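Here is one chain, start to finish.
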Amino acid sequence: MEILRQHTGHIDAIFVPVGGGGIAAGVAAYVKYVRPETKVIAVEPEDAACLAAAMKAGKRVKLDHVGLFADGVAVSQIGVETFKVLKHHIDEVITASTDEMCAAIKDIFDDTRSIAEPAGALALAGLKKYVAREKCEGLTLVAIDSGANMNFDRLRHISERTELGEKREGILAVTLPEKPGAFKAFCQTLGKRNITEFNYRYADARDAHVFVGVQLRNGDTERAELTGLLEKKGYPVLDLSDNEMAKLHIRHLVGGHAGVEDERLFRFEFPERPGALMNFLTRIEAKWNISLFHYRNHGDAYGRVLVGLQLGGRPAKELMESLKSVGYPFQEESDNPAYQLFLR
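Its structure:
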């Protein structure tokens, strides 16, 4: 009633989040009675889509597993009475991924400076997915933000996933030849694309497996073009952008004990701007083999890199003089107990 009274003009569609189906059934019953031409579209999380499963089966079904990211709509079975209404009065069910909900949370914050929980941003995620699918313009679309505000401790995870949800970051596993200069050549292949993350740990003398995040301007289309370009240049590549385990865990676990000989560890800071990482790699002399590399672009004023370099039989003094010539502040971390415990 509020929606139709506050917007008396034509509404093309109303997007409603679904848990047990109470809000959706009420909205659908009322809207279809008063304005039958307005679509009512239900939106569920991909990992808690009990209504979508019921609509497909023609009867209520119980999900074996329910994801808890959008805990406000984490329901394993649609309600008895609500399904009786929904199966006749909703136009379709759209599901949204965790990344798409995170992107919608950011959209709501940018527009209203309020921080919705995942269940609250769910309908907007469905609306955005509908617009992208139908390529529609000039429509009047309404999304119901029904959730509470966000718990503060979840913000870090949501911020991390937003770029992926907006298709502005691709996560790739790329195999490089294990030789001096390989990092630089790889970055040159990427061109002017901004690297958001770079994780690497020496494994063997032949191949280097790197976990890399790349900023995208044209979503999935550019991601496909990039993987094609890397394969054409001879780099084996695996797209991990839709790999949940890789995004949740692997990106933070890349590495391990390598037993690398003559390795020294350094932490650098440099002004963060497009091309900054490439500039940093260019300044490191090619004679030093990189045995460990970790970089993450957080949108800060400074980029921070942890890098391991092998002496290769050369004096440590020569390495220190070479690093000073790079021109960026750095600190040696070779004696750091965390390095000794987890990486050395």
